[in-house]
């Protein structure tokens, strides 16, 4: 984890502009709404293969002969091989899951992303291996039971959910049949080498273009020396997965900067709107906050239109 974090710190320069002061009469915006997601969330529907919706009325069934079965932990995030995620465990069903994988000695489970709009799970996920589990219930007044440190050791394909009814009752965790997915060397080495070279050139062009435009945030020139686009072999040689981690971290930094910019732009728009209009007082909290979804429709539409032009 330290190696990944150090590489990211050396690769990305983050210079967020200072957030402007709110005008005295303008409510402060709170970004915690469904419509905020509609404007800002990347649409992944055409880029991810989603597992069919599970039938919660279907009873639990035994695994197929010879099947690989793992606990299934759906999470609204994308995790990549050779990284080291940390999870806070508080739900009773996942407390049970961690107790079970410790007792069995397996120490591993599948994590897959979830479509926020439909609740469908991504067909391909990763395998978390539990490296260390810390009991923190006393320090957190039992709000959090465990803090788990993990290694992502591979990828798997979701084949079948064995106990779909658990998704509705939440009395226990899901269990699933999975199939391993192995990164492999393509037989056509010349084609692979050409694709790697083309991808590397594209990445280097992005780094140079960001520098020439003064883009914020941006990759530093030093990142050029550490890029790899080949098949990785493990935590010490992440290959293409390591480069994808850098790109993922860059997108997260960019989202943070754009969110700050968006907040300043909306705040300015609210000030202009209030010169000739009023916002319902009951939509503004006692602390002077208003949710994005509660902005007047013309103002919200203008904001979304502006974001579409800037993306």
TrEMBL record:
Pfam families: LON_substr_bdg (PF02190). Gene3D superfamilies: LON domain-like. InterPro entries: Lon_prtase_N (IPR003111), Lon_prtase_N_sf (IPR046336), PUA-like_sf (IPR015947). Residues 70-213 form the Lon N-terminal domain. It comes from the Eukaryota. This is Lon N-terminal domain-containing protein. It comes from Prymnesium parvum. The lineage of its organism: Eukaryota, Haptista, Haptophyta, Prymnesiophyceae, Prymnesiales.
């Amino acid at each position: 984890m330290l190696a990944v974090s150090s590489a990211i710190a050396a690769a990305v320069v983050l210079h967020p502009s200072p957030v402007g002061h709110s005008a005295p009469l303008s409510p402060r915006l709170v970004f915690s709404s469904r419509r905020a997601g509609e404007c800002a969330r990347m649409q992944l529907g055409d880029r991810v293969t989603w597992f069919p919706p599970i039938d919660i009325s279907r009873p639990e069934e035994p695994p197929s002969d010879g099947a690989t079965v793992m606990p299934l932990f759906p999470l609204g995030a994308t995790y990549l091989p050779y990284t080291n995620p940390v999870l806070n465990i508080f739900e009773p069903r996942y407390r049970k899951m961690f107790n079970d994988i410790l007792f069995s000695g397996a120490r591993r489970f599948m994590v897959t992303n979830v479509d926020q709009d439909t609740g469908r799970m991504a067909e391909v996920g990763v395998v978390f291996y539990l490296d260390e589990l810390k009991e923190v219930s006393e320090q957190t007044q039992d709000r959090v039971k465990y803090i788990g440190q993990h290694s992502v050791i591979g990828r798997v394909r979701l084949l079948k959910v064995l106990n779909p009814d658990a998704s509705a009752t939440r009395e226990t965790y899901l269990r699933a049949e999975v199939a391993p997915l192995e990164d492999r060397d393509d037989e056509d080495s010349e084609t692979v080498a050409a694709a790697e070279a083309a991808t590397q050139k594209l990445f280097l062009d992005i780094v140079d273009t960001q520098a020439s435009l003064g883009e914020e945030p941006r990759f530093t020139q030093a990142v050029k020396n550490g890029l790899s686009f080949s098949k990785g072999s493990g935590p010490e040689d992440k290959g293409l997965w390591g480069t994808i981690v850098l790109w993922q971290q860059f997108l997260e930094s960019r989202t943070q900067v754009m969110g700050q910019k968006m907040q300043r732009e909306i705040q300015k728009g609210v000030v202009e709107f209030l010169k000739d209009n009023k916002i319902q007082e009951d939509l503004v909290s006692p602390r002077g906050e208003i949710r994005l979804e509660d902005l007047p429709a013309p103002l919200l539409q203008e904001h979304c239109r502006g974001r579409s032009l800037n993306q």
